[in-house]
Every structure is written in structure tokens, then in C-alpha cells.
Write a structure and sequence with these properties.
Layout lengths: L13 H20 L3 E2 L5 E3 H8 L4 H6 L1 E4 L5 E4 L4 H10 L2 H4 L3 E10 L11 E11 L3 H17 L7 E6 L6 H12 L8 H9 L10 H8 L10 H16 L5 E2 L13 E6 L8 E7 L3 H4 L6 E8 H11 L10 E5 L2 H16 L4 E3 L6 H10 L4 E5 L1 H6 L1 E6 L4 E6 H4 L9
Parallel strand pairs: 1-5, 7-8, 12-13, 12-14
Antiparallel strand pairs: 2-4, 3-4, 5-6, 6-11, 7-9, 9-10, 10-11, 14-15, 15-16
The chain binds histidyl-adenosine monophosphate.
Length: 420
């Protein structure tokens, strides 16, 4: 049997890596501007880290985690998301003692046993950021602004919508849940099996159900935004005001419930209509109870994560051109002597920062020129017998289709000419 990758897992091939680098570089640049530092944490954690953070009634914990028993009997899980592990690391490394404000970002692979489809994988990459410490609404706003600025930087905002809402806190959410139960209970029989169970354990999840009838019933359910306590309302208004003050466009979507249970107050999602049903490219919110829940001191926090595959897919649609890898110089040679002369020439050019490709065998000049074309080389250097005799290199400007002989000893001094 032919060996192959696991369903829902995929390779990122060299032809698309430039887009990945472009997105990752922009994220790092913008996040660093806002004072965030990178953190790298393990992909494998004790299962508790996730089951205690994400909520036992969430789809992720109920059916999507890659969990297995280690040789010593402990239960381990491949991280389905980054936040829980970051909080674990925050507590374990006593980061709270070092500073009252901690700003972290991370990139890496996450694992969820979902049904694969376009834009949805079982192994996928996220870039995320967590701002731990401040409870003030200006920190929520700053984080959302940073995320939007990142999308502006990679020119995707024309294809995106930012939606925000508030999920209340421990004061107002229990009462709201009670209202939801009262609303859904008389229609219980019409809800799907999952939602009938959700009614008992977490009625908020019903608002997120994708079943047609459940959606219809949920459409008229009471809204969290109409049931916020005064503090939560003030907090939400402040976030909106901050966003307006810098001209970040947003809409209010009271139906956002998020697929994880740790959220309090502000939640947000950035979606697109270009990717079919997997329309969320980034999402996040405030999670003021999580640090304490995992055994740390009571600490507020807010964060987000974005799906790299979805961003790259959207980018391919929005900006189809301009991401091919280009070579500055291709050195074509004819004969063994020329090949030997090409070797140190390539070495010295690369040392000067010029990207150089060349052949290794003894192909015809025609096939070497073909490869130079395919690689999109800006210049091709040709070294044949005649050039060797005269101590020159024939430099062909591939765009202008112009040729010029340049002395071997002058080439390195001219290296800047060959760079874009
Ligand atoms: P999430 O909404 O579960 O939030 O995931 C964030 C983003 O990851 C999604 O908007 C989507 O772009 C991407 N994503 C999720 N699942 C998949 C998948 N199966 N295939 C491809 N992309 C996917 C979180 O993970 C939270 N940790 C965000 C957060 C950080 N909240 C606070 N801090």
C-alpha cells in the first residue's frame, strides 16, 4: 500500500510558502509594534489543561480532541487551540510576578478531529495573541485594532467583516441563561437531540446550533446584549467607542456565542463571504476567569487566533499574482572549465546577497536557458568557451532582452545591479 498523509492533514508546498511567509512576517511585524513577544509552547499537554479550560460541553472537548494515554497512564492531548496552553505556561512560569501586563503571540499547529472540508482541517495552523493582565476595555479594543491593522497590512480588509458582541460575566450571564431555558423549554421537543441536552447543560450553545429548526427557534431567543449588567454594558460601550475613534468598521452581532466556554464580556469574529461555510478567519474575546480556573491568581485576559490556511486561501483569491519565488541570477555555462568558473562566481554573488541558481550537470545551453526562464530569473549569466577566453561573462537582462559582456573581476562589484 502506498504511504500517505492522515485525512484532514496537509502539506504546505514550496510553491505556496511565499504567501505563508508574507502573512507570518506581517503578523510578527504588526504584533511587535503593539508590544507583543513570541512564545513557543508544546503541542502536547495534559488533557486537563484543555478540558478544564474550553468547557466540557463544547464540541472540541466532547468529540474533537486527539487524546491518548501515555506510557505512564497519564492522559495527553494534542492542542486543539493555543490559549489554554499559553495560560498554563503563564502560570507555570510565574509571568504574573514579572509584569502586570503580559503580551504574547504564537504560531503553530493545532489539532481538531472535525469533518474535513474546504478551509477546515484536522491539523491546521493558527497565529494567535493573548494580552494577559488588564481588565480595562481599552485592552480589548487595542487587541481588535491590532488584528484589523494586520489584515489591512496584508490587504484583505475589503473582503472581511468584523463582528463584535458581549457575552456578559458571572453576574449577568447566569440570569440570561435562565431566560434562555425559559424561552427554549416549551419548544424542547422541536430542538435537535444535541440541543435538548444543551438545554440542561449549557443553553447558550443552542444559539450556535447549525440545524435548521434549532436556528429558526433560536432566531427569536432573548439576546445577551439586552441582558447585560451595568458593568458589562459600560465595558462594551467603551470598546465600541475606542473602535469608532480609530475608524475600524464593525457590526454588532448578538448571536456570537463562540465554540469555547472560557469567554466573558467582549467576543469578536472576523469573517469573509469568499470561503463558503468555513467563513471565520479569526476570532477571540475576553476570558477573565481562565487564569484562576487553571490555578493561577485571578487575572483578566483577552486574545484571538486566526486560521492560517483560511487566510492564505483568501489571499490566493484576493491577490492571485505576485507570490512566485524569483531568482536574481541564473548562471548558465558550457563545458567543464566554465562550470568550474561558475562555482566561485555563484558563491561570491550569494555572499553579496544575490540569489543564484545554476545547473549541476552538463545540460545544453538551451535547456539551461529554459530553466532560467521557468525560475523567473531577472538576469542570466552565460559563460561559454569564448567568454572564458576573454575573461568575461555574458549578462542577459531577461526583462529587457538585452545582453552585455562584463569582466569577471567586475561582476562582484556590480552585485547590487542584479538585486531587485
Ligand atoms: P477558534 O474560533 O476556535 O478560537 O479558532 C480561531 C480560528 O482558527 C478560526 O476563526 C479559524 O480561522 C481557525 N480554525 C479553527 N478551526 C479550524 C480548522 N479545523 N481548520 C482550519 N482553521 C481552523 C480559538 O482557537 C481561540 N483560542 C481564540 C482565542 C485566543 N480566544 C482568546 N484567545
Amino acid at each position: 500500500m502506498k504511504i500517505k498523509s492522515i485525512r484532514g492533514f496537509h502539506d504546505i508546498l514550496p510553491e505556496s510558502i511565499k504567501r505563508w511567509h508574507f502573512v507570518e512576517d506581517a503578523a510578527k511585524r504588526i504584533f511587535e509594534l503593539y508590544g507583543f513577544s513570541e512564545i513557543r509552547i508544546p503541542v502536547l499537554e495534559f488533557t486537563d489543561v484543555f478540558s478544564r479550560s474550553l468547557g466540557t460541553t463544547t464540541d472540541i472537548v466532547e468529540k474533537e480532541m486527539y487524546t491518548f494515554t501515555d506510557r505512564d497512564g497519564s492522559s495527553l492531548t494534542l492542542r486543539p487551540e493555543g490559549t489554554a496552553g499559553i495560560v498554563r505556561a503563564y502560570i507555570e512560569n510565574s509571568m504574573h510576578a514579572k509584569s502586570s501586563i503580559t503580551k504574547l503571540y504564537y504560531t503553530g499547529m493545532m489539532f481538531r478531529h472535525e469533518r474535513p472540508q474546504k478551509g477546515r482541517f484536522r491539523g491546521f495552523y493558527q497565529i494567535g495573541a493573548e494580552l494577559i493582565g488588564p481588565q480595562e476595555p481599552s485592552s480589548d479594543a487595542e487587541l481588535v485594532v491590532m488584528l484589523w491593522r494586520f489584515f489591512e497590512e496584508i490587504e484583505l480588509t475589503p473582503f472581511l467583516v468584523l463582528e463584535i458582541s458581549s457575552l456578559g460575566d458571572q453576574n449577568c450571564r447566569p440570569q440570561y441563561k435562565e431566560k434562555l431555558v425559559q424561552y427554549f423549554a416549551p419548544q424542547k421537543e422541536e430542538l435537535c437531540e444535541d440541543c435538548q441536552r444543551r438545554l440542561q447543560v449549557n443553553p447558550l450553545r443552542i444559539l450556535d446550533c447549525k440545524q435548521k429548526r434549532c436556528k429558526e427557534i433560536a432566531a427569536n431567543a432573548p439576546s445577551m446584549l439586552d441582558n447585560l449588567c451595568e458593568e458589562c454594558e459600560t465595558h462594551f460601550n467603551y470598546v465600541k467607542e475606542n473602535l469608532l475613534s480609530v475608524g475600524i468598521p464593525f457590526t454588532i452581532n448578538p448571536k456570537i456565542v463562540r465554540g469555547l466556554d472560557y469567554y466573558t464580556r467582549t467576543v469578536f469574529e472576523i469573517t469573509t463571504d469568499k470561503l463558503g461555510s468555513q467563513n471565520a478567519v479569526a476570532a477571540g474575546g475576553r476570558y477573565d476567569g481562565l487564569v484562576e480556573e487553571l490555578g493561577g491568581p485571578a487575572t483578566a485576559a483577552v486574545g484571538f487566533a486566526m486560521g492560517m490556511e483560511r487566510i492564505v486561501l483568501l489571499q490566493e483569491i484576493a491577490l492571485p499574482e505576485g507570490f512566485q519565488k524569483k531568482v536574481d541570477v541564473f548562471i548558465a555555462y558550457l563545458g567543464e572549465e566554465a562550470k568550474k568558473a561558475a562555482f566561485p562566481l555563484a558563491f561570491n554573488l550569494r555572499k553579496k546577497g544575490v540569489s543564484v541558481e545554476t545547473d549541476y550537470g552538463s545540460k545544453s545551453l538551451k535547456s539551461q536557458m529554459k530553466r532560467a526562464d521557468k525560475l523567473g530569473a531577472n538576469f542570466t549569466f552565460i559563460i561559454g568557451e569564448e567568454e572564458l577566453k576573454q575573461g568575461v561573462v555574458k549578462v542577459r537582462d531577461m526583462k529587457e532582452s538585452k545582453e552585455e559582456d562584463i569582466k569577471f573581476e567586475d561582476i562582484i562589484n556590480l552585485s547590487e545591479t542584479f538585486q531587485p
